Predict the structure.
Amino acid sequence: MNLKELYEAKRDVKESEIPEEWKESFNKFISGQTCSGIFNEDGTLKEYLYYQEDFSRWYRINKLKIERDLKINEIIKR
């Protein structure tokens, strides 16, 4: 799923679903926010799970840039 699809899905987002090119921006935004975790059977942290409300807020702040990049990628793939 791309970021727009994640936003439209209206669900919590796994850390691994944030594209590498957006991780720095997202991590700066999410710093200090509450999040949950996905754990392995042995109790160790597998990855973070970010709440839909926080992800949606970050998406709306960056919506123009994100959707511009998605359009550029779509054109390049043609």
Notes: Helices lie at 3-9, 20-30, 52-77. The chain has one domain: 3-77. The longest helix spans residues 52-77.
